[in-house]
Design a protein that fits this description.
203 residues; alpha/beta
Length: 203
């Protein structure tokens, strides 16, 4: 146990370029046992880029337990491409949990299966109607495996479409805090596994 604690202390002091998680996370009980709730040591791993490819049985608590032990300096990518419309409600809950980590994450990217097209619309509505925008991640991105049926929100302002109609820019203001605005970009872009790209910037 002493050896494990010693190595963990060293790891907590290092900085890593990237981290990858699938079905595994951190055991909070084990870490607390090893360090006996020692408040003098920050029990977090410092990582520039983090990728999580969760299994279909991942829970909100497990996802949060992974993020709780990480300090992410660049971006977090969550790959939900194995999830289909059957898991849509659970994915929706996970996404709303993640986009409220703005105090810990600067940018989050969601890779989604094309059958989860309603997820993007739900997030747009959520941002427009949220009563607390203080912790929303400032840079949110979506990548879909195939083009989806994009619907322009009725709340959209300052709409600009490209000449080839393949991309759209617009703004949406929060209804409770009109000074809080989000800039939206949607378009087709062949990049890695995604063809439809959506980006939301908190202004």
């Amino acid at each position: 146990m002493i050896i494990v604690r010693c190595w963990l202390e060293k790891l907590f002091k290092w900085a890593f370029e990237s981290a990858y998680f699938d079905d595994y996370g951190f055991n909070p009980k084990m870490i607390n046992l090893l360090f006996d709730n020692d408040k003098t040591i920050p029990l977090k791993f410092h990582v520039q880029r983090t990728i999580i490819c969760p299994s279909k049985d991942i829970t909100k608590n497990k996802l949060e337990s992974i993020l709780e032990r990480l300090v992410i300096s660049e971006f977090l990518l969550i790959d939900f491409t194995e999830f289909d419309n059957v898991e849509q409600q659970r994915v929706d809950i996970l996404l709303k949990t993640l986009i409220n980590k703005g105090d810990k994450i600067r940018q989050v990217t969601f890779e989604l299966h094309s059958s989860l097209s309603e997820i993007y619309d739900n997030i747009v509505e959520y941002l427009a109607t949220s009563r607390d925008c203080s912790k929303i991640v400032p840079d949110i991105r979506f990548g879909y495996t195939k083009p989806i049926n994009f619907k322009l929100s009725e709340r959209a302002e300052k709409v600009k479409k490209s000449k080839d109609l393949k991309s759209t820019n617009y703004q949406i203001s929060n209804i409770y805090h009109p000074e809080v605005k989000f800039n939206f970009y949607s378009g087709e872009l062949e990049i890695e596994s995604s063809t439809d790209i959506y980006r939301i910037i908190k202004m």
